[in-house]
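Subject: design request, 506 residues
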């Protein structure tokens, strides 16, 4: 038996056949190679690389390490905003995947050269602390424009992101705007907030017959009860992670391949790409089942939209306010019934396909305090679990599972530090909130002094190590870390570097 030949398998074979170099598809497999497979493949890669560089403008990226050291971490972040800011986009050539935005905005940094939806809220909190409310208002207007044009805020402003959104934090940005400028500043954006809500809730009419009925981003769990899940309108490899997704597909069992790409894409919509939270225990990414879960964090954020629309529309005298209030009441009751575990003192995702509570401990369970769903007793139990289970020397860890995925042990992420700390403050657990914020700022400051960078994620378990895991190298820049660290410094009056290690290393 002959080994596989370059004219019968591999990238060159696929390129030649799909390009129809020969009229008859049998011709190329019948060819005889005139060089070794290694030589042919090397020449092919060289030719392809030269072709791409001759016909495409390859994006460039800057690193925050290019900036001179600032006298303080806060001052460094204040300067970083200029490096990460983009002017309103001119009309771009149709050949570009970037969706032009009409107002200035801030990108995360590194390989992330465009806006990202939920990143922008956490970035905005830091921009306010830095006195850059103008950029926040520009990003809010951009999101409103995207909702008007597309019907939702996509994952990012790239054409290949249009099939999915991200955790819906437009409402959080409007709450921030109201906090800074009052309700009159929010009022013009209420139609877009209602349109975004409709995007998450759209479904074909269906009758409930005793079993859950899923449709796009919704799952009907009762006659008048619809909760939400993550979803992507497309079911193919992600353009931005094509090779990685195909490799996962090859590893997957045949029974999992049909909806595998959609589940990967839904994981990307969640922002937690990727985590053991979405996987079969003990298995890899090929077992991903994002669409089979009702995520507690997503439903808390949509509850927040319902609650705020009920409040804001009532202020305008709109009778629709009552409908949103009723929706919020129904969702609150369902989340308490399906996701709260009184014995554990924590909130868990709900596996709607098996109609059981998921048992994965994650910081998604902290969103009920952030979105003011929890009662005082629940919040107290949650605070105990945060301190006993999740607290580490550098902040709070994302899950309790060490899977090798980047949204698991040992990594901590800025947005989840913010959610946890803000939720604790909402319920009067100020001391623990300050401790978590201080530890995370101290970690960010240590890494900054060592590398000159603020990072996308951190190893919160061992403060001498860098974070790892995931399908790409750790990125610096970095929008939401800058935002959360800067907001923590401002909120708690922190002076990074002055915190004594005795309390942050316990």
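Subject: RE: design request

Done. Sequence follows.
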């Amino acid at each position: 038996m002959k080994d596989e030949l370059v004219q019968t398998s591999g990238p060159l074979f696929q390129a030649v056949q799909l390009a129809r170099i020969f009229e008859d598809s049998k011709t190329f497999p019948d060819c005889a190679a005139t060089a070794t497979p290694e030589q042919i493949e090397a020449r092919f890669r060289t030719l392809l690389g030269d072709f791409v560089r001759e016909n495409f403008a390859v994006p460039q990226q800057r690193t925050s390490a290019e900036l001179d050291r600032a006298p303080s971490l806060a001052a460094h972040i204040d300067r970083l905003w200029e490096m990460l800011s983009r002017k309103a986009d001119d009309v771009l050539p149709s050949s570009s995947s970037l969706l032009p935005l009409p107002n200035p905005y801030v990108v995360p940094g590194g390989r992330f050269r465009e806006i990202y939806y939920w990143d922008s809220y956490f970035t905005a909190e830091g921009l306010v602390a830095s006195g850059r409310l103008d950029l926040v208002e520009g990003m809010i207007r951009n999101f409103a424009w995207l909702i008007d044009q597309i019907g939702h805020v996509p994952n990012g402003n790239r054409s290949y992101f249009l099939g999915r959104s991200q955790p819906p934090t437009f409402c959080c940005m409007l709450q921030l705007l109201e906090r800074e400028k009052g309700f009159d500043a929010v009022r013009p954006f209420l139609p877009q907030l209602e349109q975004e809500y409709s995007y998450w809730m759209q479904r074909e009419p269906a009758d409930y017959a005793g079993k859950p009925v899923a449709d796009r981003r919704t799952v009907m769990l009762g006659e008048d009860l619809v909760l939400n899940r993550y979803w992507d309108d497309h079911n193919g490899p992600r353009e931005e992670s094509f090779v990685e997704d195909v490799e996962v597909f090859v590893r997957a069992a045949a029974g999992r391949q049909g909806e595998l790409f959609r589940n990967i894409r839904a994981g990307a919509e969640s922002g937690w790409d990727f985590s053991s939270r979405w996987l079969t225990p003990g298995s890899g990414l090929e077992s991903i089942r994002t669409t089979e879960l009702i995520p507690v964090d997503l439903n808390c954020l949509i509850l927040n939209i319902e609650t705020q629309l009920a409040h804001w529309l009532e202020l305008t005298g709109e009778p629709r306010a009552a409908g949103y209030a009723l929706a919020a009441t129904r969702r609150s009751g369902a989340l308490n019934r399906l996701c709260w575990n009184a014995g554990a003192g924590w909130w868990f995702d709900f596996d709607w396909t098996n109609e059981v509570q998921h048992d994965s401990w994650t910081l998604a369970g902290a969103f009920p305090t952030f979105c003011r769903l929890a009662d005082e007793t629940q919040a107290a139990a949650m605070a105990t679990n945060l301190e006993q289970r999740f607290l580490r020397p550098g902040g709070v860890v994302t899950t309790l599972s060490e899977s090798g995925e980047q949204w698991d042990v040992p990594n901590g992420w800025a947005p989840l530090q913010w959610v946890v700390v803000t939720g604790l403050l909402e319920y009067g657990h100020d001391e623990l909130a300050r401790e978590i914020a201080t530890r995370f700022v101290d970690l960010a400051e240590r890494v900054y002094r060592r590398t000159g960078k603020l990072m996308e994620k951190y190893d919160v378990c061992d403060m001498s190590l860098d974070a790892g895991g995931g399908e790409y190298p750790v990125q610096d820049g970095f929008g939401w870390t800058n935002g959360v660290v800067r907001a923590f410094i401002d909120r708690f009056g922190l002076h990074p570097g002055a915190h004594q290690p005795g309390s942050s290393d316990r």
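The two ends are 62 Å apart (CA to CA).
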